[in-house]
């Protein structure tokens, strides 16, 4: 029996992600939670002839408690998206407290759940979640994930002409670091099968992966950021977690995790100087079984990208931790 819950289920990401989870034969129960519109979204999805039994909740009548109780996997796309001219960090002011409060609910009602955070800025919201879970005495680093799969999906897509793959998802490209601008580092030298990127195309390709989100924000022209590609990516990661918890082995996905407490994590933390980092994670029935250090043997160009990444990432992580340790005065 697998129960999944989506918090922020009525939004641009929440709706298509909930659709994909409702259609997933590996999900037995699906709970939707949002501050608005969950009854309508739930009624609509409930007509789909698939395995998952669906229920929807608003905050009233202990909605969060009912959505979370008995849940194995919680996916959080709650929070505001960017408009043109904004950075992901500009979302912190609103989204930090949304994530804090939802994770407090998880600590109380489903402390053993796998928690998948989509809400931006991921580089800060995941440290926020870790601090909330720590304060409640229920933090398990193996069960908390920042969803960075969209960066991987973009890298696979944007290199297609060099990977030669008809199906771009067959190109495996580690994208490490964080989830915003320069903190996103595609390691093309570690791609499998290997890529042959012309030297004069390399910088533009890296830039497109790092700033792919801006492309969508600009094209949507004030109507939000990536939702459909994010639902695809979020589902890909959630499905990997669900398969692993059901006992499937050998599943590896890049994701943003708290390195100490996961096998292999200390080595990367030492090399990068940061405790939260996206890298290849082997998933198992208990969550993140081990992390793989893909940083050894990277090219000089990639070393430079990694330097810029860790510099930015440090500040983002500290900001998230500080938000919980020294809460802003009201
Ligand atoms: P949206 O505004 O369309 O939807 C957000 C939903 O969250 C809304 O339905 C809203 O009612 C709900 N919500 C707000 N506060 C809530 C609360 N306290 N409890 C429950 N639900 C609440 O936004 P979107 O386009 O779906 O984006 C959501 C978030 O995902 C944004 O922060 C965005 O930046 C982020 N995002 C992350 C990635 C990634 O790669 N990790 C990719 C795309 C978007
Ligand atoms: C993305 O990468 O598309 C998301 O993080 C949304 C954004 O703000 O760009």
UniProtKB/TrEMBL annotation:
Name of the molecule in the record: Malate dehydrogenase
Residues annotated to bind substrate: 82, 88, 120, 154
Binding-site positions, NAD(+): 8-14, 34, 95, 118-120, 230
Keywords: NAD, Oxidoreductase, Tricarboxylic acid cycle
Keyword match Oxidoreductase: yes
GO BP term, example: malate metabolic process
Domain Lactate/malate dehydrogenase C-terminal, chain residue ranges per copy: 148-323
Catalytic site: 179 (proton acceptor)
Subunit note: Homodimer.
CDD domains linked to this entry: MDH_glyoxysomal_mitochondrial
Molecular functions per Gene Ontology: L-malate dehydrogenase (NAD+) activity
Enzyme class: oxidoreductase
EC number(s) recorded for this UniProt protein: 1.1.1.37
UniProt keyword NAD present: yes
UniProt organism field: Aspergillus cristatus (Chinese Fuzhuan brick tea-fermentation fungus)
Similarity remark: Belongs to the LDH/MDH superfamily. MDH type 1 family.
Pfam name, any one: Ldh_1_N
Catalysed reaction, written as an equation: (S)-malate + NAD(+) = oxaloacetate + NADH + H(+)
InterPro entries per UniProt: L-lactate/malate_DH, Lactate/malate_DH_C, Lactate/malate_DH_N, Lactate_DH/Glyco_Ohase_4_C, Malate_DH_AS, Malate_DH_type1, NAD(P)-bd_dom_sf
Occurrences of domain Lactate/malate dehydrogenase N-terminal (ranges): 3-146
Cellular-component GO terms for this entry: cytosol
């Amino acid at each position: 029996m697998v129960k999944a819950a989506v918090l922020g289920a009525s939004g641009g990401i929440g709706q298509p992600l909930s659709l994909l989870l409702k259609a997933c034969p590996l999900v037995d129960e699906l709970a939707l939670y949002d501050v608005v519109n969950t009854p309508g979204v739930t009624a609509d999805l409930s007509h789909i002839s698939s395995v998952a039994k669906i229920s929807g909740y608003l905050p009233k009548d202990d909605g969060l408690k009912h959505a979370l109780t008995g849940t194995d996997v919680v996916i959080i796309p709650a929070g505001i998206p960017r408009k043109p001219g904004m950075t992901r960090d500009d979302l912190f002011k609103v989204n930090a407290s949304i994530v804090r409060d939802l994770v407090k609910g998880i600590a109380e009602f489903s402390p053993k759940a796998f928690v998948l955070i989509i809400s931006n800025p991921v580089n800060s919201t995941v440290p926020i979640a870790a601090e909330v879970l720590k304060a409640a005495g229920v933090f398990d680093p193996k069960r908390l994930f920042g969803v960075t799969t969209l960066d991987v999906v973009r890298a696979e897509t944007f290199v297609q002409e060099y990977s030669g793959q008809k199906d771009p998802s067959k190109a495996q490209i580690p994208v490490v670091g964080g989830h915003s601008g320069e903190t996103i580092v595609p390691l093309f030298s570690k791609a499998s099968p290997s890529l042959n990127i012309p030297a004069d195309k390399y910088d533009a390709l890296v830039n497109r992966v790092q700033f792919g989100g801006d492309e969508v924000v600009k094209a949507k022209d004030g109507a939000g950021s990536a939702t459909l590609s994010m639902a695809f990516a979020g589902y890909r990661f959630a499905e990997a977690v669900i398969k692993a918890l059901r006992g499937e082995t050998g599943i590896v996905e890049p994701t943003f995790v708290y390195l100490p407490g996961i096998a292999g994590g200390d080595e990367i933390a030492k090399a990068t100087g940061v405790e939260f980092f996206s890298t290849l994670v082997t998933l198992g029935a208990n969550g993140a079984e081990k992390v793989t250090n893909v940083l050894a043997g990277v090219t000089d160009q990639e070393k430079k990208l990694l330097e810029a990444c860790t510099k930015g990432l440090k500040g983002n992580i500290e900001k998230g931790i500080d938000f919980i340790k020294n809460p802003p005065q009201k």
